[in-house]
Amino acid sequence: MTRSRKTTDGAPATTSMSRRILDEAARLFYEDGFPATTVRKITAACGVTAGSLYNHYGSKEEVLYAILKRAHEDSERILEEGLLRGGDRADRQLAELVRELTLFHTERRIEGLVARTEWRHLPPDQAKEVLDAQQRVRRIFERTLERGLNTGRFRLNDPRSPGPARVDVVAKAILDMCINAGQWFRPDGGLSAQELADQYAFLVLQLVGAAPEAGDRES
Amino acid sequence: MTRSRKTTDGAPATTSMSRRILDEAARLFYEDGFPATTVRKITAACGVTAGSLYNHYGSKEEVLYAILKRAHEDSERILEEGLLRGGDRADRQLAELVRELTLFHTERRIEGLVARTEWRHLPPDQAKEVLDAQQRVRRIFERTLERGLNTGRFRLNDPRSPGPARVDVVAKAILDMCINAGQWFRPDGGLSAQELADQYAFLVLQLVGAAPEAGDRES
DNA sequence: CTTATATACAAACGTTTGTTTACCAGACCC
DNA sequence: GGGTCTGGTAAACAAACGTTTGTATATAAG
């Protein structure tokens, strides 16, 4: 996991300093935001002095970019795995997606929030990379929603409204729910992250009007 | 509306400088965050020099506090009005709450986002004020949810789960949906803020399992 | 006219910022 | 031993920070 820079795969006693800087910086960006977090605070949290950061990263911005890149790669991978686990029924796919995304943002809420809020402070080309990754995640949800509507598993027709709710709007609503759960959830409230993810999956299925099907247990 | 400081109620040609500073600061806090926004940028946007800000506010923090206070007062007032308009049926109350909150955060997304994200940079007692206001908003939603469950209008029992979804969890999910809509919504996408608010109200009613009742038109 | 008040300005304050530089201790290879 | 590399240190850099100061000007009151 932690690949030390040049050693021949012998695991170092402590996590490598490069990795340590990433973790402490993520925590500080989460608490205070990127601009208010100084290089001196980051390095002090790692037990070294300011100049040392530049042995591992070219700038403070580069540290932020590394954090965001890792978070987005991991979340995309996790969602695609969940999609496969859902089989070919859109409702089961959607439930898996919601579960996985909620779990990711509760278990790794520090990186999750930083990735959502601090990309503005990156140079434009790197900021665009982050936005593209967010768009890919959204597309995964939109495709599953469309599949569920086409197969008649989801129902989004408001009797008081001219047309059905738009798929992109529904996808955004679901994403905002799952992503922001990480901001308030604390595992000490008598509710585990797993239980929260299950409740969210249930709520989202109700939200898209997924009728309980034969084969799903009924209470 | 804009009360100029000393004139005898004759409307000034331009909005007063105190108000102007508030608006420009809000926009800059929204774009770059509080710590990355300098006093010089704020005052330059108002066409004056840095020192002039201190004729109107005691510090940069005080500007942030004024923005947050105004936003929270307005949103609480709007929600309570919506609650009254909903009558005594919990489903109609909930629909009004969702509509109003979504509208507020789309029409005033700048203040809305700043209020949600920048309170960390306030001194502890003022930060607590903001958190208290957020808690009051959450309670409004929780009470309406409880009323709907007690009167049987809402249904939150997951057949695959031991108990029903917790009211506080459902309230958070709804709040995250509405509040964050302001971050991505742009009125140029062929969807007005009103239509978005209506769709969200519909989605939330499905989410809480509100059965369409006699008297609501069916398509 | 005189006086007071509000608000603008330019300039400076001490501090902190991200980053660079020059130097040094230890590990490894031959 | 000597040579090279890695990754640390202390000190310095210009630039930018929030804020204070002294001063000018315009408006309104007495």
Helix and strand topology:
The structure is a homodimer.
Chain A: H1 17-32, H2 39-45, H3 60-85, H4 90-107, H5 109-117, H6 124-150, H7 167-184, H8 193-207
Helix pairs in contact in A: 1-2, 1-3, 1-5, 3-4, 3-5, 3-6, 4-5, 4-6, 4-7, 4-8, 5-7, 6-7
Chain A binds a DNA duplex (30 and 30 nucleotides) through loops.
Task: For the structure shown, list the relevant keywords.
8 helices; DNA-binding; homodimer; 219 residues; elongated; disordered N terminus; mainly alpha
Molecular structure report:
2 copies of one chain form a homodimer. The first copy, chain A, is mainly α and 219 residues long. The first copy, chain A, is 62% helix and 0% strand. Chain A has 8 helices and no strands. Chain A is elongated. Chain A starts with 16 loop residues before the first helix and ends in a 12-residue tail after the last helix. At the A-B interface, helix 7 and helix 8 of A face helix 7 and helix 8 of B. Chain A binds a DNA duplex (30 and 30 nucleotides) through residues 5-6, 17, 38-40, 48-56, 59-60.
Nutshell version of this structure?
Chain A is mainly α and 219 residues long.
Shape, principal axes of CA atoms of chain A: elongated
Q: What Rg of chain A, in angstroms, do the CA atoms define?
A: 20 Å
Estimate the helix proportion of chain A, in percent.
55-70%
- Provide the β-strand percentage band of chain A: under 5%
Largest interface: A-B, 44 and 44 residues
| Sequence of secondary-structure elements of chain A | HHHHHHHH
Q: Tell me the structural class of chain A.
A: mainly alpha
Distance between the termini of chain A: 44 Å
Q: Number of DSSP helices of chain A?
A: 8
DSSP, total strands of chain A: 0
Q: Spans of chain A with pLDDT under 50 lasting ≥5 residues?
A: 1-13
Oligomeric state, counting identical vs distinct chains: homodimer
Mean pLDDT of chain A: 89
State the major sheet of chain A. none
